[in-house]
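Re: the 82-residue chain
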Amino acid sequence: MSRDQFEVVGNALFDRTHAFLKDHPSASYDSYVLLVLLYFIRGVEAMEGPDLQATLRNSRIGINTRVRVIYDVTRYLIKEGY
């Protein structure tokens, strides 16, 4: 993938991230970065699937914690070869 293509994809994934996090004023810079990375790693289809959306929309815990948990689980699964 060329740098130009990478930039286009990155911008599109940031737009998706911003569309979700703009409704969460407490969302940190780290949450934006991690959510964009998750879109790269897991793919749009997985990130917008019912399982991850249920976790992201669980308002019982803060948005930054929700994003961090999904990121940590994803890192673990990659490490374990899933």
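The chain is about 75% helix and 0% strand.
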